[in-house]
Structure to design on (153 residues):
């Protein structure tokens, strides 16, 4: 099984200032770009928008997992954003506000890693208590510790 700590550092966890879906996605794309300067901003934005057009990545239970595979990524990575207030316009499948947004970007050729990472994120966030701990965390380091089981700090 993959370890989330291999794909997520505390620096890529943010407490969101954004209040709309578009702003949240832009804020997390900037985190990904800061981590991987080789990523083309416009291509990433285009791929994320294309994925959202297919179907909202708001999966319910206060969670959204926008995810893309694209050229220009040198390895799979994640960025996490947390909103205590919630993002009401995210178009989540359960029609509820989204509080935890985990963006995954991976190279086109890493399909297995990409799928396993998506599955592990969904598995990690299935517990309501854990989701509430993340939403109520005071700082990004705490969110990182909760998601990764304490690794990489």
């Amino acid at each position: 099984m993959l370890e989330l700590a291999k794909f997520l550092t505390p620096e890529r966890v943010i407490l969101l200032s954004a209040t709309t879906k578009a702003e949240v996605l832009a804020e997390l794309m900037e985190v990904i770009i800061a981590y991987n300067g080789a990523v083309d901003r416009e291509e990433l934005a285009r791929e994320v928008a294309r994925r959202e057009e297919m179907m909202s990545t708001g999966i319910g239970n206060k969670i959204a997992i926008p995810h893309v595979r694209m050229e220009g990524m040198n390895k799979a990575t994640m960025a996490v954003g947390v909103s205590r207030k919630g993002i009401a316009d995210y178009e989540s499948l359960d029609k509820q506000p989204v509080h935890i947004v985990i963006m995954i970007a991976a190279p086109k050729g890493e399909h297995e890693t990409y799928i396993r990472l998506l599955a592990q994120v969904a598995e990690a966030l299935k517990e309501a208590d854990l989701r509430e701990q993340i939403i109520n965390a005071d700082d990004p380091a705490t969110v990182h510790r909760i998601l990764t089981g304490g690794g990489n700090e």
User: Anything to note?
Assistant: The mean pLDDT is 91. The CA atoms of residues 7 and 103 lie 11 Å apart. The chain has one domain: 4-148. The longest strand covers residues 77-87.
